[in-house]
Design a protein that fits this description.
By secondary structure, the chain is α/β, with parallel strands linked by helices. It has twelve helices and ten strands.
Length: 340
């Protein structure tokens, strides 16, 4: 009788411990699967604010709102080298941490191609997902004498120093690269190009409006406010096709006869040593997230354009982009500078 009572009390205790407030409850177990990370974390390799932070926050918001994850994903910040510090830290110290994903961008990949991530390459991590994309653009003031990209390029051909470019990145950055490939399209030596580097896109826009520079090379998502205010004219967007509203009236460089583009991927990688099961959980969760119509709205709210690649498909895209970036590094003799 005593043994039966003791057993009954033990069972009652276990049932109480697994009640509604316990992480072992049926509801919790329905959300926390066997391979779901117990302490999900997204590293933004920057200070708070900016593209990396938005990349993490979009995934954080979408996964919780769409009920794809049982615990909120923590965002931590690890600035340095436009991703280099975080990349080295993950590869060397947290390669097997299945809780962790890290944001990357096209600027990260360009830095990686320049060897700024030390001895590591794109093969030293596992590419999880790209959740959106942005595009380069070239803008002038609304009262600029240049009405289209062809007119600006003609001015460069006549006098390579007649146009002062500026952006939020030093020589070797992706914003500098946008200006440099325009100079190359004009058939001039990019080293003759007049270029001013600023701390960020906001400073470059202010300099443009103040008349200190004549052309601003940045990201199309950064320019929406000034475009709507009527203070800015975008000569070209560096995408293969025209973008959706509110940018549908902006011509691409391609349709103006110039064969260049600058897509900016925004996504995530994980450590190379996490298990296939854990890696698949992240990949599958991103696939579910990006397939949901509500995510399209969220992505638009975060200033990104539709793009969805995961797993092996994304890894193949990264490999192609790295070939392209390394070719540019060689062509433009890049051995310094910083990408954004």
């Amino acid at each position: 009788m005593i043994r039966k009572t003791t057993t009954t009390l033990a069972i009652a205790f276990l049932l109480t411990a697994c009640g509604p407030d316990s992480e072992s409850s049926p509801d919790a177990l329905a959300k926390i699967g066997p391979t779901e990370p117990s302490r999900p974390e997204c590293i933004a390799p920057s200070k708070p604010g900016g593209g990396f932070d938005l990349t993490c926050k979009l995934a954080q918001k979408a996964m919780m709102e769409l009920e794809l994850i049982g615990r909120p994903m923590r965002i931590s910040y690890q600035p340095g080298g436009i991703g280099a510090v975080a990349y080295n830290s993950v590869v060397a110290q947290r390669g097997d941490d299945s809780n962790l994903i890290v944001a990357f961008s096209g600027g990260s990949l360009l830095n990686l191609a320049q060897g700024k991530f030390g001895r590591y390459s794109e093969q030293d991590v596992r590419w999880v997902a790209a959740e959106g994309i942005d595009y380069g653009m070239l803008a002038v003031r609304a009262d600029s004498p240049f009405d289209d990209l062809g007119q600006l390029i003609s001015a460069l051909q006549e006098n390579p120093t007649s146009v002062v470019f500026g952006s939020g990145g030093t020589v070797g950055s992706q914003d500098w690269m946008k200006s440099a490939i325009i100079a190359r399209a004009a058939g001039i030596d990019y080293r003759m190009m007049r270029y001013v580097a600023f701390e960020g896109g906001g400073e470059a826009q202010t300099a443009l409006l103040g008349g200190h520079i004549q052309a601003y090379s940045g990201d199309i998502s950064e320019a929406q406010g000034l475009l709507e205010s009527g203070h800015l004219r975008i000569l070209a967007v560096m995408s293969d096709e025209r973008l959706p509203p509110p940018f549908e009236k902006i011509p691409t460089a391609h349709e103006q006869g110039f064969n260049f583009s600058w897509p900016i991927l925004r996504g995530f990688y994980a450590g190379a040593d996490i298990s296939d099961e854990d890696y698949d959980w992240w990949v599958n969760t991103f696939e579910k997230m990006m397939a949901n119509p509500r995510f399209d709205e969220m992505r638009r709210e975060f200033g990104m354009f539709p793009y969805a690649k995961t797993g092996a498909e994304l890894a193949a895209v990264i490999e192609q982009r790295m070939v392209h970036y390394r070719k540019l590094v060689e062509e433009f003799h890049l051995n310094g500078g910083e990408t954004r």
